[in-house]
Specification:
InterPro entries: F420-G6PD/mer (IPR050564), Lucif-like_OxRdatse_MSMEG_4141 (IPR019922), Luciferase-like_dom (IPR011251), Luciferase-like_sf (IPR036661). This is TIGR03620 family F420-dependent LLM class oxidoreductase. GO terms for molecular function: oxidoreductase activity, acting on paired donors, with incorporation or reduction of molecular oxygen. With 274 residues, the chain is of the alpha/beta class. It has one domain: Luciferase-like domain (TIM Barrel, Alpha-Beta Barrel). Strand 5, helix 4 and strand 6 form a beta-alpha-beta unit. Helix 1 crosses helix 2 and helix 1 packs parallel to helix 12. The longest helix is centred in the first third of the chain and has 14 residues. The two termini are 23 Å apart.
Length: 274
């Protein structure tokens, strides 16, 4: 599965998923379409996208372990791959404590959930784990195809690759803003990450990258925003994505912000996939 993903994937909220979007991304050369958010266990949004395309991989980014039990998710996995073998990656994760009242012993929950996926016959190679910190990154490398971190920098990717070793998938998701005016691009980026500043998992991840509480105040510092969101021209955006690849990413997931996500996907594809 890892090889089938290619160098670049695209991410959008599930609410925007359409077969036409999947077709367009496949034509542009993207290897995968990742859903943003927590889909229901039936994963009913996946099959129409696979039906409409020839080789695009569809990945969940992520199924929330607190929200949906492993058994029905595994049933959906088997239904999907029976029709489209080799084209579905089951991304799972723990979410954020601020959004889940049941959030207790999260590491134990992840291990238990992966055990249940094992019992249900979901192959290690066809699943990925949302991971930011060292302990969960190690779990991702040991128990899944690899890690899918979000809102991280190329330095995080470098550290994650060193921890994972050469083999496992490392698929960081990096937001981009296609806007040549630097001030406008930064304003869009500030708005996009505002809610994430209150999520402890992201704050802890950023602290490990030498950001401080000052960077989280007043809507986030320019330093933080510029590090986790690539804004500007196609060449500037492509350069940041390439930094992740150079740092050891297997596959970089492009999360397009703004009113016309396809414009950014097209622009990035022209630089990196043409």
């Amino acid at each position: 599965m890892v090889n089938a993903l290619g160098r670049l994937g695209a991410s959008q909220p599930y609410s925007t998923f359409t077969p036409d979007l999947a077709v367009q991304l496949e034509k542009l050369g993207y290897g995968a379409l990742w859903g943003g958010g927590s889909p229901d266990a039936d994963l009913s949004l996946v099959e129409p996208l696979l039906d409409a395309t020839d080789h695009l991989v569809v990945a969940t980014g992520i199924v929330n372990m607190w929200k949906d039990d492993a058994a029905p998710v595994a049933e959906s996995y088997h239904r999907i791959v029976a029709k489209h073998p080799g084209r579905f990656l089951l991304g799972v994760g723990i979410g954020h404590p601020e959004a889940t009242k049941e959030y207790q012993k999260p590491y134990d929950k992840m291990v238990e959930y992966l055990d249940q996926l094992d019992e249900a016959g979901v192959p290690v190679a066809d699943r990925a784990l949302a991971a930011l910190g060292p302990k969960v990154l190690k779990l991702a490398g040991d128990r899944t195809a690899g890690a899918h971190p979000a809102m991280v920098t190329p330095e995080h990717t470098r550290q994650a690759r060193a921890l994972l070793g050469e083999g496992p998938l490392l698929a960081p998701a990096h937001p981009v803003v296609l806007e040549p005016d630097a001030a406008k691009a930064r304003a869009i980026a500030h708005e996009a990450i505002r809610n994430m500043l209150n999520l402890s998992n992201h704050r802890n991840s950023w602290r490990r990258l030498a950001f401080t509480d000052e960077d989280f105040a007043n809507g986030g510092s320019d330093r933080l925003v510029d590090a986790v969101v690539a804004g500007g021209t196609p060449d500037v955006i492509a350069a940041r994505l390439t930094e992740h690849l150079d740092a050891g990413a297997t596959h970089v997931v492009v999360l397009s912000l703004g009113d016309d996500p396809l414009a950014a996907f097209r622009a990035v594809a022209q630089v990196l996939l043409s």
